[in-house]
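All the exercises in this workshop are built on plain-text protein records. A learned vocabulary of local backbone shapes supplies the integers on the structure line. Once this layout is familiar, the rest of the handout is easier to follow. An example says more than a description, so a record of this kind follows:
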Amino acid sequence: MITIFERQQFVSHYDPDEIRSYENIEFVKCKFYGGGFGYRHTPDYSRRTTAQNITIRNCEAKKFSIGPALLRDIWIENLKSDMILAYGPLLEHVKFRGRCGKWLIHGTFQGINQSELERAQYQPLCTRFYKTVDWAIDISEAEFEDFDLRTGGIPAKLVKRDPETQVIIRRERAMQGSWRELGLDRMTEIGLTLFLKEGAADTVLVVPKRMKGAKRLVEDLRKLQAAGIAEPD
């Protein structure tokens, strides 16, 4: 049975103190202002907040963040948002479709201020999880205003994508540095620089279809592919 919330507002709503599992819920035309989801877990992350079989359709979110929850079978369609920050969630069958606002997904650890040791301890959890996953996220039909996969964690091969605007970059090719001579847009250069700095093995470089200047960024992807830096698809 599906529980439906329609035209409701959730203001500064955070997880309860205990670890919980949520499933079979549909949010339609709801608004989420402030707050966060998925921050409850045991110290070793063996148990964590879980959300499964959740649909979010024609909703709005502002100043919202997601912690290291397990998110499985999630459908997000037409979510108006400022930057949604996700810190270390494990993702399986999360589908984005339509206008989906701005997202920054950190893959390997909870938060950007963790120590190197804490990051290293979290990475094997991600690796073990994604060995059993056929695909993690589907962004092939999404129109983002901004979208970044940061700090690794989600293998690029597990991202369903639009090859025209979303390409795979592997670390060994980007490290050659020849992309600095291609006359790329500054945004593309920043994305590649951060990717190398953070040490991930690969990533998906995404052109947000609703971002001003998207055409120029798509041209950058073709340059990267022609130079052998991005995967040719």
